[in-house]
Amino acid sequence: MRAFLGVLACSLTVLSVHGLYSASDDVVELNPSNFNREVIQSDSLWLVEFYAPWCGHCKSLAPEWKKAATALKGIVKVGAVDADQHNSLGGQYGVRGFPTIKIFGANKQKPEDYQGGRSGQAIVDAALNALRSLVKDRLGGKAGGSDYGKQSGGGAGNKKDVVELTDDNFDRTVLDSDDVWMVEFFAPWCGHCKNLEPEWKAAATEVKEQTKGKVKLGAVDATVHQGLESRYGIRGFPTIKIFRKGEEPEDFQGGGRTRSDIVARAMDLYSDNIPPPELQEVIDEDVLKKTCEDYQLCIISVLPHILDTGASGRNSYLEVMRTMADKYKKKTWGWLWTEAGAQMDLESSLGIGGFGYPAMAAINARKMKFALLRGSFSETGIHEFLRELSVGRGSTATVGGGALPKINTVEPWDGKDGVLPMEDDIDLSDVDLDDLGKDEL
């Protein structure tokens, strides 16, 4: 049986089904609300599967994963994350295909990829080997388990990671920032605020690391900075509001106010605020190979020749692609384009073949399957195409030759209109013009 190397992608054709595990299993169901509490704060060794309910490989793995969880009960923790539903949590750990298994050992912030087989025995063996390594490290005096973010009497986190906001610095620090802000408005005498303080402080430290500073936590003493209290209509304490540049603030909705609740909301905000994937031109084999092999799907457009559209026409097509890449940025998809005729082997392998431009295909390089856009090359048409793929509809075919095609190395587009090729000049100096038009006998 072939070993899988941490990332196993499933077929492009998907089915919408329920989760693979239930409360009766020994597999712990994990989500953004409990992941930090159960896994990150734990001294235990964890094996965590990131899966999608529609994934065929995940369905095959499920009974073996349950067997391993039962065998390891009380020794090693075994969990599972529905990463199709909780894609922000999957994205946090670089999950690009299903199933992906991570081992959370001594350093919970840097889990290792599981590289064993798919049988229950192989999983158990790998878990026990990882456990031996963890115990050996502890015997040698190395840290065992993660001391990051542990709460001891509510003292976890770094108070400096909660930014103190005032009437004087609020606009400059929050409203003018490109980052997302979660701001607590509190009163020093408020009992609920005192209970929230250690959770807010611990969450601030974790969010700062997990989002690379793109989501920030701040606090306003609303009894001192009454201008802000009045400006944002604060009527009770604590009140938490979310600020995004150029948008009206929104209230922190749903869930509790524990560190894990706050971190989960911050990770959702981070996912919403990440930039769209880069739209790349296929100029050599490396671009195609890296994009299609690193992502769950690669979306490839073949645009008309520059002489047919000019720069403005091409840019309009590229803008449609950028818009759709932004719309689907939470998906683990890569986005590529090429000019008609520049990569004929690629066109042939996708059945595009020299006509019908612009064209679009979605390729699953791990299964060598693809689907073609049948509707219009527009935001509406592409959205319908990608939405159908997301819910498992639409027909697929095998990539011609069963492998990624040969790619020519070409010069990237310079952003300008096309120029007709110059014909060689003809020297007419030796031609007797009087003889032109006479029939040769």
UniProtKB/TrEMBL annotation:
Predominant place of localization: endoplasmic reticulum
Function: May function as a chaperone that inhibits aggregation of misfolded proteins. Negatively regulates the unfolded protein response (UPR) through binding to UPR sensors such as ERN1, which in turn inactivates ERN1 signaling. May also regulate the UPR via the EIF2AK3 UPR sensor. Plays a role in platelet aggregation and activation by agonists such as convulxin, collagen and thrombin.
Domain of life, per lineage: Eukaryota
Keyword Repeat part of the UniProt annotation: yes
GO process annotations (BP): response to endoplasmic reticulum stress
Gene, per the UniProt record: LOC122140908
PROSITE patterns: THIOREDOXIN_1, THIOREDOXIN_2
Similarity comment: Belongs to the protein disulfide isomerase family.
Chemical reaction(s) catalysed: Catalyzes the rearrangement of -S-S- bonds in proteins
Keywords carried by this UniProt record: Disulfide bond, Endoplasmic reticulum, Isomerase, Redox-active center, Repeat, Signal
UniProt-listed InterPro entries: PDI_thioredoxin-like_dom, Thioredoxin_CS, Thioredoxin_domain
Signal peptide positions (record): 1-19
Gene Ontology MF terms: protein disulfide isomerase activity; protein-disulfide reductase activity
Top-rank EC class of the record's enzyme: isomerase
Localization terms from the record: Endoplasmic reticulum lumen
UniProt keyword Heme present: no
Protein name, per record: Protein disulfide-isomerase A6
GO cellular component: endoplasmic reticulum lumen
UniProt domain Thioredoxin: residue ranges: 3-133, 154-288
Subunit structure: Part of a large chaperone multiprotein complex comprising DNAJB11, HSP90B1, HSPA5, HYOU, PDIA2, PDIA4, PDIA6, PPIB, SDF2L1, UGGT1 and very small amounts of ERP29, but not, or at very low levels, CALR nor CANX. Interacts with MICA on the surface of tumor cells, leading to MICA disulfide bond reduction which is required for its release from tumor cells. Interacts with ITGB3 following platelet stimulation. Interacts with ERN1; the interaction is direct. Interacts with EIF2AK3.
